[in-house]
Amino acid sequence: MKIVGVGHYAPAHVVTNHDLEAWLDTTDEWITTRTGMKRRHWTSDNEATSDLASAAAEAALVHAGLQAADVDCFIVATVTPDYYFPATACLVATRLGVREKPAFDIAIACSGFIYGLTVASGLIRSGVYRRVMLIGAESLSKILDKGDRSTAILFGDGAGAVILERSEENSFLASDLGADGSRPELLYAHGSGSREPIDHAALDAKLHLIHMQGRETFKLAVNKMVESTGSVLSKANLTKADIAFLIPHQANKRIIDATARYLGLPDDKVVINISEYGNTSAASIPMALSETVRTGRVKPGDLIVFVAFGGGLSWGAVAWRWTA
Ligand SMILES: CC(C)(COP(=O)(O)OP(=O)(O)OC[C@H]1O[C@@H](n2cnc3c(N)ncnc32)[C@H](O)[C@@H]1OP(=O)(O)O)[C@@H](O)C(=O)NCCC(=O)NCCS
User: What's the whole-model pTM score?
Assistant: First the structure.
């Protein structure tokens, strides 16, 4: 199997660090040095995750030279769906003009694309489907406490899509996934599910918005991303020296830099676009992949390692051989 098309989309509305200075006790200098972020894109009131996902999917279809009807299954990785249900993937497939094809969501936060790539690859390799559209899409600005400087500066909105197709070439080399639900409070939006159903008190306390313990999450992210990259390479019988590109989840440039340093990877092998988009959770890796492929940096035969860490806690890596 291989990837035959990539696409990405970010909403038009850009929020710069200087814009944030207008209502938060923060500075462009603090945000830039602590996170590497300069800008992020936020949806407007009338935009939702399925809008971003559909735009990215359309771009991937054009890139692949395919019609939506050529796709057998639609998967959206997101923790900011349009609704609790139906799944955002159902809305996206219909928006693309496809009816009665399977469509479902994967909700595993920032690891969504890694889990999705593993599931989609499994569906193709086992012969269930020939072509799968996998989209990572988020509207995190809709669940941000815009008055909390420790989270409001970090997150952005966007979508990235890949089309996977059965083929003689084998791009999927190995996957390493993990999860630990013992400390959900490190990163969660807890008020509004079945444990703490939303009510006026929960709304007033902003329990439905993102809450994060940043410093602790930071340390775990670096450890797990380094560990998972090592595991996936060993499963694929490869070494760090074989990596052409590391495409990590874009949570914080310092997390990415520390991960690359532990792995001994030079800057030109590590894809970073965080300055433009911030942390877009499940969308960050497919957006970065799409940008890297579309600018012609990726060559046939290149080994790409995708790696992520996020809410759950959850983490994972996929080793992928790029084929033309
Ligand atoms: C959130 C994060 C950027 C904070 O950076 P940090 O260097 O850890 O900063 P700290 O949380 O230790 O805070 C340091 C100080 O900066 C302050 N601060 C926090 N946000 C600020 C902001 N936007 N502007 C100015 N100061 C800020 C804090 O209040 C604290 O002040 P104090 O020392 O007076 O208490 C960083 O911890 C991070 O990126 N964490 C992980 C994010 C992540 O991986 N998410 C999950 C994966 S999706």
Answer: 0.97
Q: Report the atom number in ligand 1 closest to the C-alpha of 109.
A: 48
Tally the domains of the chain: 2
CATH number of the structural domain spanning residue 270? 3.40.47.10
Place of tokens 């996902």: 53
Question: Same domain for 152 and 41?
Answer: yes
CA of 47 relative to ligand 1 center, distance in Å: 29
Cα of 266 to ligand 1 centre, how many Å? 26
Instruction: Give bridge partners of residue 305 from the DSSP assignment.
Output: 246, 319
For atom 29 of ligand 1, the residue with the nearest CA is 150
pLDDT of residue 191: 86
pLDDT higher than 90, residue 126:
yes
DSSP symbols for 179-208: E-TT-GGGEE--TTSSSS---HHHHHTTTT
Shared-domain flag, residues 47 and 70:
yes
Q: Active site includes 73? A: no
